[in-house]
Amino acid sequence: MSKGIAWLLVVLISAAAIVNLATTVIKSDKLLDEISTVRTDLFTLRSRVASLDSVVSDIRNQIEKSDDIIKSVHFTRPTTSLEKVVLKPL
To answer: Maximum distance among all alpha carbons in the chain?
Structure first.
């Protein structure tokens, strides 16, 4: 094999490796963007759950302070929307 062909093979292999590396970097950037979006969504969800927990605690405190004797309180949740949660007594 002549030196020219050997150099051409080296250049082609190097170019293929560079293209492969660039593709991997682009995929990594997309993956990092998606991870960031998921983290943001999880933070929002955690905040909404904490808010809901606070509302439920307030309701329980109000029930416990009421004059009525209540042994047990159960709620149904007819909707699963995170925008609005409606609690209805069973």
So the answer is: 99
Asked whether the beta carbons of 78 and 90 are under 8 A apart, the reply is no
pLDDT score at 26: 82
40-69: per-residue pLDDT in tens? Answer: 999 999 888 888 888 888 888 887 777 555
In the structure encoding, which two tokens stand for residue 58, read together?
A: 């307030």
Q: What are the angstrom distances between the C-alpha of 62 and each of 57, 66, 81, 88?
A: 9, 6, 25, 15
pTM listed for this prediction: 0.44
Within 13 Å, how many C-alpha atoms sit on residue 8's CB side? 5
Q: What value, to the nearest 5°, has the Cα angle with vertex 11 and ends 5 and 17?
A: 135
Contact criterion met (CB below 8 Å) for 89 and 73? yes
Q: How far apart are CA 79 and CA 88, in angstroms?
A: 10
